[in-house]
Amino acid sequence: MKRVIGIVSDLFDKELEYRDKFNFITERHGFEIISLNNIDKDEMNRIEDCEVIFGAVSPEMLKKAVSLKWFACSFAGVDKYVNDELYASDNVILTNSSGAYGVTIAESMIAGILVLLRGFDRHLENQKKQIWGQQIPVRSIYGSKITVIGMGDIGSCFAERAAALGAEVTGVRRGDMPKPEYIARQLNSSQLDDALCGADIVVLCVPATNETVHMIDSRRIGLMNSQTIIVNTGRGSAIDQDALVSALNEDRISGAFLDVTDPEPLPPSHPLWRSKNCIITPHVSGNTTLELTCRRIIEVFLENLVLYAENKPLLHVVNKILGY
After folding, report:
1. How do residues 1-59 score in pLDDT, each as one tens digit?
2. Using alpha carbons only, what angle is made at residue 82 by residues 179 and 217, rounded to the nearest 5 degrees?
3. Mean pLDDT, residues 241-258
4. Looking at 238-317, which runs of residues are DSSP E strands?
5. Which terminus of the chain is more exposed, N or C, with fewer CB under 10 A?
């Protein structure tokens, strides 16, 4: 009997050049492919035969995958998939698509920072009102001090680009790893307070874990200054949003660029929408409309699929206890 791979994604429809390679790998190793896209309740039993699932499946569907051995998530952040209760077996391997999103999210952060530093948000508001407006004081990434919290793929991609634009970058990470050449200094998470002091821009690229909830709270915002910009593309729970709203409206920090909030979607009545100098995007910085991102997600999966078929250790395995 063939081993079943369930696909919950349209990426292979977008990137047709990878389909032949995918078909070759699956046929060579005796896999059968089924689509789990848009299945209804009557077809839900199809997931029960899946040994492997690739894509982004709902937790409810995941619970029905009683034959599952490997869930290859097409996301980088997998906090909603780390609960062992979602799986029929404690031995199910969870991998993410780390390495696929760094470029697109880093570019989104650079864009958001430049909008705030150059005052483009205010120029756009004037444009809507047909007002010529006045010259706005601007700042530069060049010569700025940027602290990046979370030096995984996304944080590292951003840090490298910020350094190339002339910023002095401090990286904060949990593990003890060699310092990349492109950053000025590297601190561990116990030194976060030191990393925040004097920072012009604070960038958060952390997953949702017990350790990261409200890691930027009122006290730590107080370590910043009136020129500091906060950027968050990790998880909204990393920031105490009430403290952030107060700091923005009282001019204790300069601005914020947020691609993530807590909760999501952010309710229309939430005061964060109306906060001063705050740009909010709806968790789209890692959007898979970018062809490069789509290609890399597929490449990560195919690389792991060969390893899985050959009973070799997989890459990008998530520690469900740590959450990443």
Report:
1. 679 999 999 899 888 889 999 999 999 999 999 999 987 776 778 899 999 999 999 88
2. 60
3. 98
4. 255-258, 278-280
5. N
